[in-house]
């Protein structure tokens, strides 16, 4: 009897797994927010009667409702944006929109522009997601350096609550020159509600598997149920993470602002002739004199840096010379002593 019960339990689990996999694939490939695969589980009528399910989904996000095909509804075609001929499709009353905007702007007063941007971000309860600032000024460390062109640049990625999206854009316009502005609206309603329906189906399957696990008595059945339960929980957590990410994108719009500093152009009334012979001669003499002093400076610093090395080398040479001189004297004395002891014979 126990073996038969275990076999029946395993068959039930496999049947549920197959129907779950089939319905999940249908949900991902379907163009509707909730399709008929949800009802293939056989749980919808038990847990969500059709009328109650429609009413609950209609109030879930305020203005959104999902009506399965064949259910009665008093929603007009103006409210749904669909004609009466679309009776086999899902009716969506609310939408999930993701707003994105890319702005490129130029400013004569870089510091004031950045200050205004930060004030607007704080005013509309936003935050800076990423920030990158550069300054490509050359020779800024020279005493006689004079700035002749804009060198500062900043790129900001800002997240602003969606209800303040247009207000924020209006707040940064009009004071500086906007050279480029691109806005995008991504409707993720279908993906969002597909994921929501998938989460509900997975939660129902998880509850059923937990009930079966609690009632299982055979170890083989427990292992099989736990394996399938782990898969369902993994899919459920992944779907919830995806839904939370979509909620964040819907709640906070993404705005990228690129700010570049520019200088005001002042044309001369009378053109001034430049680069004459005297100008070139004066510049050449000035550059030659500067080069001469730079070379003297380099030589002076080189001598100062070589003094310790020269001292060490001198001491070594002196010691070696003294040793060599002492050895030479010894050799000369030894040679003289040998000559005295053994005088040469004619």
Report on this model:
- The chain is α+β, with helices and mostly antiparallel strands and 346 residues long.
- It is built from nine helices and five strands; from the N terminus they run H-H-H-H-E-H-E-E-H-E-H-H-E-H.
- The chain has helices at residues 2-29, 44-47, 50-60, 77-80, 110-123, 165-172, 189-215, 219-251, 277-341, and strands spanning 97-107, 127-135, 152-161, 177-187, 252-261.
- It has a five-stranded mixed beta sheet.
- Helix 7 packs antiparallel against helix 8.
- The chain is flat and about 130 Å long.
- It starts with a helix and ends in a 5-residue tail after the last helix.
- The model is unreliable at 1-5 and 18-93 (pLDDT under 50).
Largest sheet: 5 strands, mixed
Uncertain regions spanning at least 5 consecutive residues: 1-5, 18-93
Q: Please, what is the oligomeric state?
A: single chain
Strand order of the main beta sheet, please? 2-3-5-1-4
Helices, by number, come to 9
Helix content: 55-70%
What best-fitting shape do the alpha-carbon axes yield?
A: flat
> Helix/strand-derived class?
alpha+beta
In total, the number of strands is 5
């Amino acid at each position: 009897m126990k073996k038969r019960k275990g076999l029946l339990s395993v068959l039930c689990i496999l049947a549920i797994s197959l129907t779950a996999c089939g319905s999940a694939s249908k949900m991902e490939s379907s163009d509707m927010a909730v399709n008929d695969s949800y009802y293939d589980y056989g749980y919808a009528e038990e847990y969500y009667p059709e009328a109650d399910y429609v009413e609950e989904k209609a109030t879930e996000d305020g203005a959104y409702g999902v009506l399965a095909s064949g259910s009665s509804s008093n929603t007009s075609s103006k409210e749904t944006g669909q004609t009466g001929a679309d009776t086999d499709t899902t009716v969506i009353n609310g939408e999930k929109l993701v707003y994105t905007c890319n702005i490129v702007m130029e400013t004569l007063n870089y510091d004031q522009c950045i200050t205004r941007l930060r004030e607007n971000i704080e005013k509309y309860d936003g935050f800076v997601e990423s920030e990158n600032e550069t300054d490509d000024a050359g020779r800024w460390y020279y005493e006689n350096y004079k700035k002749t062109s804009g060198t500062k640049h900043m790129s900001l990625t800002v997240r602003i609550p969606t209800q303040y999206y247009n207000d924020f854009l209006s707040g940064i316009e009009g004071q500086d020159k906007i050279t480029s502005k691109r806005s995008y609206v991504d409707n993720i309603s279908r993906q969002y509600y597909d994921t929501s329906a998938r989460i509900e189906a997975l939660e129902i399957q998880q509850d059923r598997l937990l009930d079966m696990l609690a009632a299982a008595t055979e170890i083989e059945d427990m292992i099989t149920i736990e394996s399938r339960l782990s898969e369902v929980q993994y899919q459920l957590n992944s779907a919830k993470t995806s839904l939370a990410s979509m909620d964040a994108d819907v709640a906070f719009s993404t705005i990228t602002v690129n700010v570049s500093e520019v200088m005001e152009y002042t044309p001369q009334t009378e053109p001034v002739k430049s680069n004459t012979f005297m100008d070139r001669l004066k510049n050449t003499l000035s550059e030659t004199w500067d080069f001469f002093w730079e070379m003297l400076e380099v030589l002076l610093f080189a001598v100062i840096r070589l003094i310790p090395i020269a001292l060490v080398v001198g001491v070594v040479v002196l010691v070696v010379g003294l040793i060599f001189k002492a050895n030479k004297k010894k050799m000369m004395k030894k040679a003289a002593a040998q000559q005295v002891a053994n005088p040469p014979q004619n």
